[in-house]
Design a protein that fits this description.
α3 packs across α6 and α3 crosses α8. The chain starts with 21 loop residues before the first strand and ends in a 6-residue tail after the last strand. By secondary structure, the chain is an alpha+beta fold. Among the domains are: 148 residues, 2-Layer Sandwich (D-Amino Acid Oxidase, Chain A, domain 2); 86 residues, Rieske Iron-sulfur Protein. 27% of the residues lie in helices and 29% in strands. It contains 10 helices and 25 strands.
Length: 508
């Protein structure tokens, strides 16, 4: 599966890796968070290195829908339900500053984008109360939203009410990331792609560990989606969510505005034009059907459902690309940004964007930059202080406890299910994977590209039994969202080690 934004080969950016290098700041991850932070710090005169295991915009950034909206579905209403209005306003202000920084950068870099009206809408009457709550929270936070009835909407898909916010941004996320990388390299900073970080140490001096050797820096930033260190246990304070997108060529008229449902099953509708996309003919992106990573009966069925829904409401729609994205949502719905516990003030991180990375990521970069540069608090935006000193409320604890219960159930269920089938097992059909038991240990057997492989099916993070993702042909952990390729190579998540590949007879 390939995102619409990645139709062209990645630009050849970066330089050969030199171990033992010394820098002011080392940043792990070349998505919007890492690259924005690197550009800000480089502009401030610091010597920065960015390390990326894959290519530019490899994961969440490259799989984004390209929507930069302050409305964000029902997110504002969800936060306001259990937190003061001041926190919602701070969250909106942080996203506004993040968006404004990103668009200002795009203007300077020649990356085009469009502005459209965004809608949080109800698909049936049960969702109207949520739409009203979203409208109230948005207005309380200073956003000029307005309510619309079904007659005023006139959409080809079911929509009985919506709250609308004008002037929201649509942009190609990969074009932005590549432009950030180009500025970074041209300004004299260092960018290494294909270099995977395997750990971070602060004593006797701060350094990033890689398979090719260490990199030393006074400050280290984890811009890795999930914080890859267990300090602070942030893997347990967030949940990994996987959601899906399909792009279509649609005959005749298609929406010129964007929509996100507040009720289930989730539906995100985003038109793409040459001005805010990959330079192709106009297309329509339909997304949704999100779920916790590793906890789905069939990821492929979730994508097929989006295709069926689109063809029902946009007759003649022709699929062009399908893909999925992974993001992390904090239990209190506000991103975690700042210094990591037990890091001696040398390690910082950002996670928990809840699928709104194109505004939350540059906002996080602004805060990380202010902290690293030592900007006095009185000179920082108020939202940084408000978000940084927010209190945990009972609803946050309850949401965390609920997720912990689901994690525990997934942990027990995975081991129990693995006991039900013993090796040897029939060779899985192409694109399929199964978990079986070998001498009391779960083994994952899959066939991809005509090659059948067996791997240790226990996650290298905290020992969860992996499940097979039938859409992307990966092994996914239902505990804390680590993911692995069929041969066991680690893709993303808090796990740092690969799975062990096991011998299997009859492999082709």
């Amino acid at each position: 599966m390939q995102p619409l934004w990645k139709t062209d080969p990645p630009a050849p950016l970066g330089s050969p890796f030199e171990p033992e290098g010394r820098y002011d700041v080392a940043i792990i991850g070349a998505g919007i968070t890492g690259l924005s932070t690197a550009v800000m710090l480089t502009r401030a005169g610091l010597d920065v290195v960015v390390l990326e295991a894959g290519e530019i915009a490899q994961l969440a950034t490259g799989a984004n829908t390209g929507k930069v909206s302050l409305l964000q579905g029902q997110r504002l209403a969800e936060i306001r339900a259990h937190h003061p209005a001041s926190l919602v306003r701070a969250y909106v202000d942080s996203n506004r500053d993040g968006r404004d920084w990103l668009t200002a950068f795009a203007d300077g870099a020649g990356v085009s984008y469009t502005r459209r009206t965004d809608h949080s809408y109800a698909q049936d009457a049960d969702g109207i109360e949520t739409v009203l709550a979203q409208h109230a929270a948005a207005q309380e936070a200073g956003l000029p939203t307005r309510m619309l009835t079904a007659a005023e909407l006139s959409t080809p898909f079911p929509a009985v009410a919506a709250v609308a916010l004008e002037d929201q941004v649509m942009i190609d996320p990969v074009q932005v990331a590549e432009a950030l990388a180009r500025e970074l390299v041209s300004s004299g900073a260092t960018l290494h792609t294909g270099i995977r970080a395997t750990g971070v140490r602060v004593l006797p001096e701060p350094r990033v560990l890689t398979a090719a050797g260490p990199v030393f820096a006074e400050q280290i930033v984890l811009a890795t989606g999930s914080a890859i260190l267990d300090r602070g246990l942030y893997f347990s304070k967030t949940r990994g969510m996987r959601s899906y997108c399909v792009s279509f060529r649609v005959p005749g008229e298609m929406p010129t505005e964007t929509f996100l449902s507040v009720d289930s099953p989730s539906r995100s509708i985003r038109p793409v034009s040459e001005a805010d996309g990959p330079g192709q003919a106009a297309q329509l992106i339909v997304g949704g059907n999100g779920h916790p990573v590793g906890r789905s009966d069939s990821e492929k069925a979730a994508i097929d459902d989006l295709v069926e829904w689109t063809r029902q409401h946009f007759p003649g729609a022709e699929e062009t690309h399908r893909w999925s994205a992974q993001d992390y949502e904090s239990h209190n719905l506000i991103p975690f940004v700042g210094a990591m516990p037990r890091g001696l003030g040398r390690i910082r991180f950002a996670t928990g964007y809840g699928k709104w990375g194109l505004s939350n990521a540059p906002a996080a970069a602004l805060r990380l930059t202010a902290e690293i540069l030592g900007t006095p608090r009185k000179e920082r935006p108020d939202w940084m202080t408000t978000i940084g000193t927010r209190l945990t409320v009972p609803a946050d604890i309850a949401r965390g406890a609920s997720e912990s219960g689901k994690v525990a159930a997934a942990a027990v269920g995975g081991w129990t299910d693995a006991e039900k089938r013993s090796v040897p097992v029939p060779r899985p059909a192409e694109g399929e994977g199964i978990v079986a038991n070998r001498a009391g240990l779960p083994v994952g057997v899959s066939t991809v590209g005509g090659v059948t492989r067996a791997v240790d099916a226990v996650c290298t993070h905290l020992g969860g039994v992996l499940s097979w993702n039938d859409a992307e042909c990966t092994w996914d952990c239902p505990l804390h969202a680590s993911r692995f390729a069929p041969d066991g190579t680690r893709i993303e998540g808090p796990a740092l080690k690969d799975l062990t590949e096991l011998p299997r007879t009859g492999r082709r």
